[in-house]
Specification:
Layout lengths: L6 H29 L8 H12 L8 H13 L4 H23 L3 H19 L1 H19 L2 H14 L19 H16 L4 H9 L6 H14 L11 H18 L6 H19 L4 H11 L3 H9 L5 H18 L14
Length: 347
């Protein structure tokens, strides 16, 4: 006679397996992010130079956390660049994994989204942004619950990792009560059309940046002016792969909300963040770094929103499968190109 395990036992077993999976992957990701060879990604060499400059009394990177980590690296790791990588990875990887495990409606799908879209981009390459993005991911549940005070504190912490995170403070105005569909659906479209038919957007951006407080406002305005003077004022491709896909998921989310009588607080916030992502990206499209960084930072919310989107349909497994396929295609077509695999042959 075969004794079948009770349903409660099966749930415990499944949770244990998922927990072990998350724990093991966290260790692997932490090791990879720490011991990657300099030059595998296109930012590690810059961080090595910044660390050398710090040793010589020059702060090429002015964020407080970088200065603290550089000092800590000299104290503990004898100015080893891998010590700096470890300190950043020790923040970003565990936070991402714990937040996904604890708050995602579909942890395994969120894990796939995170691994395919953001591990290489943030935890291996843009490590300062990656740590800031992890703190933002941790702050999203506060935004959903309406705990603005906790959210602001976490955004402040994120800005210590990367100053661009101050843009996240604008999300405190998002209500978790009403969808406000007309405004949030049309704002990306209106800004996109404005951008396409306006050639002198840089002056508008400079005027706006000049109203922002220091050091963000002046730094952003000077950046725009320098690009113009150097003749490098090129527009971002507003119809790139990631933006078009995000626009598709945004439209799909809106469609699902139309079919729902009472959207949850989760869905309302996820939908609105998608709208803000697209709107800000289109508006800043004439300033490549600002547009891409803001989009990538806000895009971390996709780790939560894409799994939540799949659960809004009766064919949730099919939608989930489409999301998984898209994630792996994006990993292959876009993110793997961020790595310089040729340099591995020189080791």
């Amino acid at each position: 006679m075969v004794i079948k395990p009770r349903s409660n036992d099966m749930i415990i077993i499944k949770k244990s397996i998922v927990y072990i999976l998350f724990f093991c992957l966290s260790l692997i990701m932490l090791m990879v992010a720490t011991f990657k060879p300099v030059g595998l990604d296109y930012d590690s060499g810059n961080y090595q130079n910044a660390l050398l400059s710090f040793q010589n009394g020059v702060n090429d990177i002015s964020e407080p956390v970088f200065i603290f980590f550089a000092w800590l690296d000299s104290l503990i790791f004898n100015n080893n660049i891998h010590g700096l990588f470890f300190l950043y990875a020790l923040i970003s990887v565990p936070i991402n994994m714990v937040v996904i495990y604890k708050y995602s409606k579909s942890p395994l799908l969120s894990l796939i989204v995170y691994t395919c879209l953001y591990f290489i981009l943030h935890d291996l390459t843009q490590i300062r942004v990656g740590a800031a993005a992890a703190v933002f991911l941790l702050a999203i549940p506060d935004l959903i619950s309406g705990n603005k005070k906790k959210y602001i504190i976490k955004v402040f912490i994120a800005s210590m990792f990367h100053f661009s995170s101050v843009i996240l403070i604008s999300l405190i105005f998002l209500s978790n009560k009403k969808v406000n569909a007309k405004f949030f659906v049309f704002s990306p479209m209106v800004v996109l059309l404005f951008t396409l038919f306006t050639s002198n957007t840089y002056q508008i951006l400079i005027d706006i940046f000049n109203f922002l407080p220091a050091p963000i406002g002046p730094k952003a305005a000077n950046y725009v002016l320098n690009l113009q003077l150097l003749g490098k004022f090129d527009n971002v491709n507003v119809f790139s792969k990631i933006t078009l896909c995000t626009l598709f998921f945004f439209t799909l989310y809106f469609y699902s909300l139309l079919k729902s009588d009472k959207p949850t607080e989760f869905d309302i916030i996820y939908f609105k963040i998608m709208s803000v992502m697209l709107t800000v990206f289109y508006f800043l499209s004439s300033v490549p770094v600002l547009a891409s960084r803001s989009f990538e930072l806000l895009g971390v919310s996709l780790i939560f929103s894409l799994p939540a989107l799949s659960l809004r349909f009766k064919q949730k497994r099919l939608v989930g499968l489409v999301i998984i396929m898209w994630c792996f295609v994006y990993l292959y077509v876009v993110n793997l190109k961020l790595l310089n695999f040729e340099m591995l042959g020189t080791l």
